[in-house]
Amino acid sequence: MRFIPTTTAKVEALKKQAKRLQRNGGGKHADLLNRVARTAGYEHWHHVTLCMRETEGVANERSLQSTIEHVLSLEARGEAAIVGTGPETSATQPFLVFSTGQGDAWLLDPIGRQACCLMWQGQRQSPLIRDLPDQLQILWEGTYELRGAFFEVDLDHPLIGRRAIAGYPVDALREFLLPVQPTEETIAQVFGQEDAVPLTPDVIRRLVGEGWQPQQLATAARQGAQYSPVRNTVLFPPMREPE
Questions:
Q1: Is the pLDDT of residue 183 over 60?
Q2: Band of residue 150 on the pLDDT scale cut at 50, 70, 90
């Protein structure tokens, strides 16, 4: 289910709307809650309550950025760790932040197979990640694949580019990712980028106005990346197969 920032005040307003409907036309309160939830863009009332709890979690520092800082501190001590986190966290769709114990750390989107390097050879990197209570912006640097014992990436990153990296906890990553593999519908949406729009000058200008970096967006556009309004991220084309 899609994460929608949901405050307690918004939930109360939806409840009042359901009560008004009940007074005017009757019907079961539970059915009316589901109706107003769908009208507001949710799948059902339970979706509303899940989003409210997730929003409260972000406000309580259970955020993507706080987890990134925790994992980077582990990497600084030479410890490998894998953590699922972020405002979209659920049993089926977390982000992953992992340290390798060898000077590198990464942020992954398991659904889109997107990646950002957080630390490379002991040096902290600076991908665009804006983790706010009401929105999350990530400019993914490229894509990743798990190929045998290798972590393979194809990034718009001057130090990394495309390479297969050995020595990462690939088996542990593969085990962690298994429960969150996308369904056929999600695969079509992400890899077919059905919800994405091209990074045209107009789209880039709007994103820059929201705080995105113009040079990074321009580079992403040249590489064929598109912007996904649903996920509020830049999606790169799937990784090319080795020739």
A1: no
A2: confident
The larger pLDDT score, comparing residue 178 to residue 107, is at: 107
Residue type, 46: H
User: What is the number of residues in the chain?
Assistant: 243
Q: What is the DSSP string of the chain?
A: -------HHHHHHHHHHHHHHHHHH---HHHHHHHHHHHTT-SSHHHHHHHHHHHHHHHTT-SHHHHHHHHHHHHHTT-EEEEEESTT-SSS--EEEEEESSS-EEEEETTTTEEEEEEETTEE----EEEETTEEEEE--EEEEEETTEEEEEES-TTTSEEEE-SS-HHHHHHHHGGGPPPHHHHHHHHTTTT-EE--HHHHHHHHHTT--HHHHHHHHHTT-EEETTTTEEEPPPPPPP-
Determine the pLDDT at residue 57: 56
Please state the pTM of the whole predicted model. Answer: 0.54
Distance of CA 119 to the CA centre of its chain: 19
Q: How far apart are CA 87 and CA 58, in angstroms?
A: 7
